[in-house]
Amino acid sequence: MSMAHPSVAVVLLNYNSLKYLKEFLPALVAHTPEWVELVIIDNASTQQAWAWVAEHYPQIRWVQFHENYGYAGGYQRGLQEVHADYYVLLNIDVEVTKNWLEPVISAFEADSSIGAAQPKILAQTNKAYFEHAGSAGGFIDQFGYPFCRGRVFDHLEVDTGQYDEAIDCFWASGAALFVRSNVFKEVGGFDERFFAHMEEIDFCWRVQKAGYSVKCFPESIVYHVGGGVLDYAHPRKAYLNFRNNLIMCFKQWSILAILWKLPIRLFLDAIAAWRFLLTGKPAGFLAVAKAHLHFFAGIFKWRQKANNATSPRQVRGILKKSIVFQYFVLGKKTYTQLTR
Fold first, then answer.
1. Is the model's pTM score more than 0.90?
2. Which of 68, 118, 261, 313 could lock onto 172 through a cystine, CB 3.0 to 4.6 A?
3. Can you give the pLDDT at residue 47?
């Protein structure tokens, strides 16, 4: 990296997470270069976290909202107040490590085709394992189900260095999302209708359609608590994941793809719903049913904000298989097995 540093802003989104600010801000401040701006956007928290931050870290800029806009809306609105060449969107429950930022920014500086990227994301509660949200780069299958290098459905791999190669992926995790600010603006940022969950996958899909690459750089490592704001098993999370994933696919698929893929996708979702019910999780069953109901209720509006621009560069990271079939029927539970 040249002596004239690029303009970088690390931006956190807070909602009643003072305990995570106290736990993880010390490492963030210690391991982030002084030339990087630190910003916290607050989604109308009821806690007085700003007072604690102002006392202990006065160098951190605070942007206050009086309404909770979720992840998508919080960043979409908050980043209008941030001026930098690069945004680093960092979850409040992420522990960064030494030299976590510089390798990724250096890669961006060296290659103007990179639009978005993520570091390697390991579990903060068990640091030998990959973490659910992102691991070593995100992908989707042909029916829109996301998975990662290091995580397929609920199966998390131990990190033995097997995914330490920097690669192109389909999506970069919103837990630690590096993005060029001009690319963020060019593709329209996040879709606020998602509120939370899947918005980064939808965003990265549009980044690729606009002709940019999405990368994972495992040289950079962070640790993510995961489910810190909303537990992974929570019905609200299941509802948002199923609903938003359907919206995303409906936005991004061609009409022809919708005609043959959507019925199969709905059938696979129905199997997941019944699996919730048969394993004693009726709230999960209801969450999927509610997600489908709300998807169909708004079906005529979801195509809005779709970016169907195609670039000469092929969209990468879509597995031409069904991971539901590969995982549950064939027993393939790792990225390596799926892509073999």
1. yes
2. 118
3. 84
